[in-house]
């Protein structure tokens, strides 16, 4: 019986995502989540398993999120085995009888409430079942109780029914299962084709199977059991329950997107899904299967547009499993281990992966995936181990796996194993065999099931092993090099800034101070097509990868040529495959491919197609030639069976114009996908146009499997001679290829993609300034938001370059164009910051002259001659235009109120001088605005106000991926804490502060060693998904409940949905940065080609938040290139509450835009730590204050003219914006800002007006603080005893914040607050734990233990009654001690991945650790008494580690690029006064002391055994010593000895 709740508002709400509107696009939605399963290994079915599945869900509740409606979750579900007895019971009264178990299937159906629509669909379902030869046994209404559903969910609730299907063909069960898959697909396609309006958003088939049944819905985790009566019935039994709790970035009710899907549930994100779906579609023609036969054709299109990434993955997995692969084999194809560069993998397994790699490109991204077909249940983790998954096994044959421990507590004495999923590894339970199959056994069996190595030897051709071609090479142009360079748009800057560093050092060039040139569509110059595409990057919903320190998971291997039939594993063993180790081909490599058919018994034929067009035909000739080119490619493959297509522009001459290589590549790639022929041939590009990293990446992203940039190589030869470099031609080319490879890895890794194979064709770009029609035709599926130029203008731009090369232009007669992109040049590209604007601003602020400011603002605002920014094309409607009356300026809110909305940008102490940093802080504090520390910490003396009342304390404390100087005290002294997810100049990348910039002062504030370089990792290692961000927000809010928590994002297409997720994760504030900002050092590729203008990102963010009803609960700030009051008004109209300024206040304080910030040579003492240069700093707080007052005055004047008295009245009122009349510009006139100016109607205010609801009132720490008051008030020692569960997160953090507020970083005496806990701790146990607090936990803990440890002590050991072997069991999760500053940790057990990542000074003892341990460590001491994973000590520049190496192969698992291994030597004595004294020596004594501590605090048997047999064990230890750290310590010791010869440290 269904109870109806009372619905509140929004009766007409439809289920599903809203249609694309304004800048909101449902395709950009993300989700992530908690998952788990419980299974009986022996396949014993019981109702307990179902009940336990529901319990797991309830304990994962904090991994989900709610939006504006507190009763509206993002969806949960449970997949179970077919409960046959239960269905017999409930169908007994129905007019049909069930056949034996296995001979019938159950279809779970979501149907529309509308009676007529439902009847139509039920008829379609019955018709398709019968047409396929099976029986409709009968129907059942699934009983539900919706009395607890949220008001926004009720109108979207479907009618839920089951259809029972009889096996009418007497097929065996697996064949029947395949038939049910086909039937389901036919029904889905038929319902879609019927276009039933009332079914939209309601109709969906959760499952149709004879093995499993899926109960799911748009429910909260606690509602699944109460909603479905079936799940509470004791006769509903199963031997497994797979469950999932979803967290999506939106609040739109979508029942179908709850997980699990038919076979999997997934926590993570598939970054390459656009390309994966394209490649699956492209296989249409080549796919055939003996098992499916003619049924295969009925499945297309296999993957529907508009699904989530996980749903697409599930479709692909189903096809593989139904097509004959085992679930484990299919999973290994979709999410392979890192095999290409892994020396530890055995040859047979590598052959398996390498062979399968040609069949299927990886679905790349962070992923923990649990999967089941009802007989086996398993889970696997991506190659980089980026999601948590822990499991335990009990003595009564149960396995429980979940995103965290503690979700289903079991008696400790029954648990016989506690472990975790490891990177690339798999856990598989075969319930029919009744056992757990280990990763090694499973993969050895699969790898040995076919002679993969033999198949490879027979079919694999490696390009580098082919003989060099003999005879005359292909046409080499007889045109002068200069003419070719001009025709392809080379400039002097390309040679100087881009190609020279690649040639000299084998790496791309760096720059600083962001970019202030116009977007390509606004430029008067001819721009390469590449520049209209901006690289996408990961922020929040998945992490970027570090391509240098984690190179072992990256791969540039590319396959050229046809892809085998995916569903014929053995048949494809005869098909040849051409493999290249990396995709940048030398001229010789390309000739090998061109003549590959000359080699005997070889199936390859390469055909070169000409991508030039007849100059005489003018711009119109381009389309004709493109159409012909696509037709030639199609004909060559379909009729002549050519299988490698080379697109070449070598035909360039005065009469032939080169088609932009990117346009030709993408046009052919998409044409072949549409024809189903793309997998029948490889695509190689031979072009003179591509010369920088971004060019190569765009070609790859739109389908090029390999690229030969021949003119770049010729240019390298020219520069080698000109610069007089002592390199051979081969070495010069090798340097360029090496730099290109590094650059491509960097760009892939920004998006979290690790393999070129899955990047190829993945289209990880958005377009800025290209028309939708042009994109739809040639770059299908790419986002473009503001329209722009089309094919005609692209042809114009190309012809401009061509005429420049072959025409009579005197300037270009014997020199390249100057460029002017990277520096201001005469006759070069326009810049916003030039001598005129910088001078005008500095005169205005120094003389406090409003007239001079007006002159400055006019130069920037009025872009009549030269367009520079998108907002330069906007027109603001004044009062008379919008039917209002102008008001007197006296009625407008005061300047003093307006300036409170201003903040200065995040520039760290370290990137800028202390004088500049403090000047900004003093100025903003006087104004009542906010200054930002940047990511380098802040000196403690600044927390106390000066005698004159000024304060140098920055109100905003930044927490970035390096966590430098982030202590409990630092956080306690903030008004706002900002999580820097990305920075405008180089989104998706980390940073590096070179050792020569780390002086005593910087090292002290960053808690590091002077002279040792510091690395900020590309990702925050505690934010791999949206629910991780929610956890960090929770940590920081606990550390300082008084501060607002802010998240800084960078503008890109899709940033709005991320911002909505950030709001649901309970951030109080979000910053949207434009790509043009950024003061720090950055690769030139990133400065120019990543991120988008803030106008686009801000508008999308505001629209998406309003659509989600989340706008009022979060403050939105915009920054990145704000310069005037008009910019502020436009920011407000597009949806910003607050405004950030970085470069302009620096200019006000004296910066002259030399763009040398990354060189430490700033001539005005701003961006330098050099003492002599710092003395040149002349800026004062008054200059900065004057600037902000001028801006606020300009804002007031404009508000008065518009007829409004306050900024709040205009926030989000985009109808007050229009495009300037008659834009007379050959490119810009195509721009259309309609989507940008779309106003989403709302029934309440659309600015920040409410606080977030932070769940920190009723938590464990409140109890701890109450009991610790004697210690906090009077330093009296206290002892506290308590239990803890996995929902008690961030234990100790709020307590530490209270302590730090009173006593600073120095804290209290050790053990003043001593806490003994029992149970399983939630995430972030002991985060920021302050000195004076000790935590002793009997039990285990989850991820992020001891994050930011600030002097406290943590000891964790298993319970006494536990049946496990501690040193072989996991006790703490991933990313333990991240950014720890000081303190001690002792763990009796093994830790997960990334143990002690970015540790700055804590001491830790652990009995084993996963991959990437001690990554980026800069201080402290780590002892590992057991095995480590791969990549130990990657990027470790300081601190030391001692590792027990019993099997003698530690060196192969250690990343030796920055460290050396030394023996542990020294006498046992009392020479050490403190464990951290002189880390160069006293090793044996230090290690002995730490082992004694470990035994004392955790009762470790392992430590006791080593101490008892010290002489035997000591030689088995390695000391891991960073080379840079040793050098810095020696220098410090020498300096100290010179000062005072006799004294110790």
What does this structure look like?
Strand 33 (956-959), helix 28 (968-972) and strand 34 form a beta-alpha-beta unit. The strands form 13 sheets. Strands 43-44-45-46-48-50-51-52-54-53 form a 10-stranded mixed β-sheet, sandwiched between helices. An 8-stranded parallel β-sheet has the order 32-31-41-40-38-37-34-33. Strands 7-2-8-1-13-12-14 form a 7-stranded antiparallel β-sheet, covered by helices on one side. The protein starts with 30 loop residues before the first strand and ends in a 6-residue tail after the last helix. Helices cover 31% and strands 18% of the residues. It is α/β, with parallel strands linked by helices and 1545 residues long.
Q: What is the structure about, briefly put?
A:
It is built from 44 helices and 54 strands.
Helix/strand layout:
Blueprint: E1 31-40, H1 47-59, E2 76-81, H2 84-91, E3 104-111, H3 115-131, E4 135-141, E5 159-166, H4 173-194, E6 204-209, E7 212-217, H5 224-227, H6 229-232, E8 240-248, E9 264-268, H7 273-282, H8 309-322, H9 327-334, H10 347-359, E10 367-372, E11 376-381, E12 390-394, E13 398-402, E14 415-420, E15 426-430, E16 435-437, H11 439-448, H12 452-459, E17 460-462, H13 481-487, H14 492-505, E18 510-511, E19 533-535, E20 558-560, E21 577-580, H15 587-594, E22 606-610, E23 612-614, H16 621-638, E24 644-648, E25 656-658, H17 661-674, E26 682-686, H18 693-701, E27 706-708, H19 710-722, H20 729-750, H21 756-759, E28 765-770, H22 772-778, E29 783-789, H23 791-806, H24 835-846, H25 850-861, E30 874-876, H26 895-898, E31 902-906, H27 914-927, E32 930-932, E33 956-959, H28 968-972, E34 976-980, E35 991-993, H29 1000-1006, E36 1014-1016, H30 1026-1039, E37 1044-1050, H31 1055-1064, E38 1069-1073, E39 1082-1083, H32 1084-1089, H33 1094-1107, E40 1115-1119, H34 1125-1134, E41 1138-1141, H35 1143-1148, H36 1171-1174, H37 1181-1202, E42 1217-1219, H38 1260-1274, ...
Parallel strand pairs: 17-21, 22-24, 24-26, 26-27, 28-29, 31-32, 31-41, 33-34, 34-37, 37-38, 38-40, 40-41, 43-44, 44-45, 45-46, 46-48, 47-49, 48-50, 50-51, 51-52
Antiparallel strand pairs: 1-8, 1-13, 2-7, 2-8, 3-5, 3-6, 4-5, 9-10, 10-11, 11-15, 12-13, 12-14, 15-16, 18-39, 19-28, 20-21, 23-25, 30-42, 35-36, 52-54, 53-54
